[in-house]
Structure formats: structure tokens, C-alpha cells
Amino acid sequence: MKIDVVIPWVDGNDPVLKAKRRLYGDPSALSRSDVGGDTRYADLGEIHWCIRSINKFAPFINRIFIVTDGQDPHVESAIPVEIVDHHCIFSGREEFLPVFNSTAIETLIWNIPSLSEHFLLMNDDFIITKPVTEEDFFTADGKAVCYGRRRSAIWARFVYELSVLKHGYRRATFKRALIEGCRMGGMKNSFIYLVHTPRPLFKSVFQDYYRMHPEAVEANIRQRFRALGRHQVQALQYAILLRRGEAVLADPSGRLMFLLHWKGADYVKAKLASAEAKASCKFACFNSLDQASEDERKAVVEWVERTLA
Predict the structure, then answer these.
(1) Span 183-200, pLDDT tens digits
(2) How many domains does the chain fold into?
(3) CATH code (residue 292)
């Protein structure tokens, strides 16, 4: 089985990209962390950790595709790496470019010409921390492994309405996009809450669905920045696959170390040590590392370098 990896990536420090964002984004969008704030595009070189981890712990990967807007992270990799520009996957839809919305970009990744049928979608702040096999992602009988939990969509919508009262506006949250994707995939009263692990996917499922529902593609790509009303594409696919019996839902407990900051360097070090000690913990995600303190970042860097040495 050939398995590729796709990683959307952006260097938010690039002055050309910053100028583009200022040109196309209004001040309110650029000031909100849930829409187009600087932290959404911050880059501390995590892509290099991500690529190193794939090479070390998943050497069976066939090819790595890095999807960018005219950029190149210049990674070193024994596994072949191909840089894919937004113009490639938006071919025939160039009027929607430039785009600064990760959901829009993920909606069209199946347009990568040489992408294999089986692939993993990863963020650049994901790393693999221990050896993995193909069956951590696709079962022996060909089903996708979905790392997530089934939750009530009714309760999630109720909680969201309470948050609207708290914030004074409707936030473009990850959970709302998950609920919408699962609804489109046939789930009415529940949804799959996906955690931050590599996500095994099938190219043909996206091809078939979006060719039959071109309006769903346009709904996701017409917003240059993150917005309400979008659907999370992996949630859509997993809802379809679970309904057809072509995916298995895997409890992510103990398999992922999702690191937030704000609790201090001692908390960060304790969490990193715990993840290292657990044999089942094979994935890590460093969320908004740009906002961490110097001590927190130092602890993370030392741990990653030790893990990938």
C-alpha cells in the first residue's frame, strides 16, 4: 500500500505574505485569532520537526507533499518531498486565490496530481514521536483509522450558543466546522471530534463527493479567511466512511500529547515527560507555540531534539 503525506504550510513571517494578508483582509479579520490573526500563520520551524519525525518513525511513507503559497521551507528528507503551489490545487478556480484559509486549502488537496489513494493529512505542528506502522493509519482490511470521539451535536450547538453570549459574536470555531462536515456526511445528532493526529484519508472519497457536490467546494473556498458556514473536510470524509463501514473509530486517549502553554514551564516539562514514558503515545501537537514563554519553548525544543535525535 502506498501512503503519502500532505502538509499545508505557511511561513507567516514572509513579508510578501504579510502584505497579501493586509491587502485582502479587513482589520477585524486580521485582529481575530479565530479568523486571520498572526498566530494562525506563525512559523517557528515546526515543519522541519514534522518532516524529521516522518523520516525517523514512518519510513514506509511514499512521498511528502508540502502545499504552499509560493514558498519553500527547504526541508531535508530521505523520503521524496514535492512542493505543491496553491495554483496547482486551485487549477480552474484561480479566482479564489490568494487564500489564507486552511479549510479552503484542505478542500482541494485531492487535486494534487500524483497523490496516492491512501494518504495522511498532517499539520506542520504535528510530529510522530515513536515508531508507527501502516496499520496505525489503515487497517489490514483497508479501513481508515479515525482518531476521535463521538459527541452530541445537539449539546455542542447549545454550548456554542452560550459562547455567543459570552463573546458577543459568532466565532468560526473548529468544532462548528466538524459538526457541519459530519452533518453533510450523514450524521444528524452526533459528530466526530477529531484530535490533532495524522488523519488517514482516501483521495477517491473526496473526488467522488466533491464532483457530485461542487457547491460544497465553492462554499468552503470562497472565503479567503476562516469563516462561519465552512465544513471540516476530514469530518465529512469520516462521516461517510463510518456510515459505509470503511473506517474504524479509535479512542485517542493516551495516543496523543496535545500541548497548550499558559500553565508554565514545569507543567510543560511534566507533560512532555509523561508522553515520553507512555508507549501508546505516538503523536504530538504543539499548538500556538509562538505564544509560549521562552522557558516553555526551550523545554519543547529540548524534548523534540531528544526525541528526534
Answers:
(1) 999 998 899 999 999 999
(2) 1
(3) 3.90.550
